[in-house]
Amino acid sequence: MESPVPSVLCDVVALAADASGGAAVRWKLAESGRQLDANVVHLTAGQRVDAHREPDLDVLLLVLSGDGTLESAGRDEALTAGGLVWLPHGSTRALVAGAGGLSYLTVHRRRPGMQIGTRPPGAAGPEAG
Asked: Is 129's pLDDT higher than 50?
């Protein structure tokens, strides 16, 4: 078995500077055998990621370009290029892009894939309704 080899994956500065294509996930970590997930996301001016809660994973968010607001626990925090934000598991948060849009990198532990198996004898099925 070969040892893993480090590699340069992308140029996040170039991804963040590319204003074409509107809001989108501009890049995602897809290498096999990885233990992390990572994405570069771009939001256009005024676009938002609605409030949501991540119950299981801490997330690091690095603002690459633009500006915006992190809404959490009844308070707003300004986001600007270079800002590194910790989003602890269990926290509720929303993001709103500023006038120049917002590009950011998120990194978190990889979620385990869905496991398909057999149900133990006598186990209840999904509830109806």
From this structure: no
Each residue of 43-89: pLDDT tens digit? 999 999 999 998 889 999 999 999 999 999 879 999 999 999 999 99
Question: Mean pLDDT highest for which of 10-14, 87-91, 111-115?
Answer: 87-91
Under a CB-based contact definition with an 8 Å cutoff, are residues 89 and 56 in contact?
Answer: yes
Which helix or strand (DSSP H or E) is residue 16 part of?
helix 12-17
CB atoms within 10 A of CB 6: 5
Helix (H, G, I), strand (E, B) or coil at 15: helix
Pick the closest to residue 43 from 100, 85, 83, 102 (CA basis): 102
| Contact between 71 and 94 (Cβ < 8 Å) | yes
pLDDT at 98 over 80: yes
Domains of the chain: 12-109 (2.60.120.10)
Q: How far is the CA of 54 from the CAs of 25, 68, 94, in angstroms?
A: 19, 20, 11
Q: How many CB atoms lie within 10 A of CB 103?
A: 25
